[in-house]
Amino acid sequence: MLGAIDEDEEEEFSDPVSKECSDLAASSGPKSQPAATSHTILVVDNSGSMKLRDVANGSSELLQRCKALVSSLSKDLFAEQALLSAGACTDLVSCVRMEDGQTRLLCELLPLNQARVSLLARNAPGSSLLCAPRGEGFYAPALAEAVRLAELGASVLDPTACTTVLFFSDGRPSDKPCDIPGAGAWVCARCTWRNAADELQCVSCASSRLDEYGGDHERWQRTRLLPHLAAQLEELCALLDYDKRRLQWHSIGLGKEEEFVVLRSMTEALPRDIGHFNCCTLDARSLARGVSSVSSSLTQSRLASSTTKYRRPLRAVFLNQFEGRFTRYPRAKIYKAPPPGEFGAPNELLGEADIEIADGAFGHGGERNVFAMRFVTRTTFTKVTADSRGRQQREVEFEAKPGEQWVVKEDKHARVNDSFEIETHDKSLVCQVTAGNLAQNFNAATAQLGGDIPRLKYLEAFLITTEIPSKRILFTERRLEAGFQKWNTNNGIVLRAERPLGSGDGSSDEGRIRTEHVPQAFSHWTLADNENGVDYEDSDGRARRGRLLVCDIQGCYAATRRELVLNDPVIHSQSGEIEANMFGLTDHGSRGIMLFMKSHVCNPLCAVLGLPPNTLFEEEKTAAFARSSRETSELTVLASEHCAKRGRERGIPKRQMQAAKKHGEKVVQADGRLKAKLPDYAGQGPVAYVSDASERVGVTAFRPGVPDLSSSSSGGDGG
To answer: What is the C-alpha separation between 20 and 15, in angstroms, rounded?
Structure first.
């Protein structure tokens, strides 16, 4: 960040990602965009230290910091957001550059694609990011400019659209008291020389007065600069009503942690759900992950905006069709799941293998379609480790045989970008690995009790990416054995088993520990016993240990092994209040924990484990198993006049349409409309509900296979 590098001959700055933008640079200027859906403000450090060539790039050649940043912004932010916006002019970008002791405005409220061209243009370095670094970078004026841009953008943004600020720096600020009104006089020990009178003089302000700080730069930063910056951030938050849906702040530091005391303190001055700090090492991949997290946040903010009316369409997929027809995907990359609780960790590549995936899905959940998958040949990946005597040995990390049955799970909705999908799957992977780690600790606790208490085991899961014949990002695991069952759900509903599994007739002794007690006790134990939990890092990188609860226990019971084989867990955590949905979209935080405990009845295993009594239990919350956390009657069905008429004529009330929308198998028709078909509803026969592509407006409803006597149209087609 410091301007210690001052070369007379500047190195020519060029980058391959900017070639397409060379002759297309557009002038920057205020653009009035009504009902804009997002505003991204980039504050970029371009001080002299950005010229250092010390960023690892996966090869022997190191990159300059400035080139690594431009490359990452181009690929991990601009390119991904351009794909999502599809050329729309409602996503705005502003950019400020810190260099040479001043702040330079590069663009102001430009549409995304136009800003991308302007900021990456090689033939206009004065108004692009492709300018040789020079001088020093001052935080205070750059932040003041960001606040001004946010205020300007608020006048053209939709009231619920989000302003995202990315503040990037590679070191300490160079701000001086003479640059901040009322900040006090100060003599900079870093940029001074001793005169004949042996007095310190500041090169910038020619002051020879030593104030009460005695030339202590860091002390001045703590006592004067930081309060000044905090006041500016307070102004920014007040401008956008302290609303996390309207403001997201991302600070990225490139370099050593100790260089970013001020940058981290700035972020900590913001509310936790607004400010996010990421310290990236001097590695291009680390920087790419930091920028990608900003891109993902921007995407989620856009999707969450209630006024953008943006909803990702469902993928066109064959459901319960062509399940036996497989397509080969050669050289699919298989990645290891991140360690328990480690979000954002890099995906470790295990190797490549040829796989085959069924053309049709055999099932689906709330967020993903499930396909059968198999390996073409025996696949084994190993790593070399050392034993206690230092001798090398090979350890198997992954093994799959051609005859084994696997499944892959794919997002039900259309692709946004690679980072968004990978992050979604990574959260599921971390969730399953974390639950598996807790299950092992639980098994150790129950083993000490003696007896024959069934063990819990979560399936090992991996990430798979393919390129040929199509690009897909998939969650994969072995297929469960027969006898799938749920023991509890993610919304506080505990399933009452019709018979005690693995417990003989289960008739007399109410104090006897039975198999059905194990998953319920496990959920209670994960909340009560924090000693065996997992540590995690919050959005600011600080180590935390909060209460969490594993639920939605589902899988199969292998009676011969006395083992419950499980998958797809849900984890509710207090970390959900620190970072929304930390363990995925189903992480409902303290509310989810409360809902579960209100329906949990402590059983004999809870007592033997010494778990605290559940004082939150409410009798009215206990109910039979339900398929979803949302009541059928709460689903919105906006029936068109034609749909309402057909419903009356065919005897299909609104409740049946809601049931079909919630529980039915969904198929995207050739015209883009969505058909949800329910085989039977309460013994009244099948029902199908057809909506538009957005799933918001009902088009028609009919009973498949039932002759339509209400009109001349075919009942089978549902006119």
So the answer is: 11
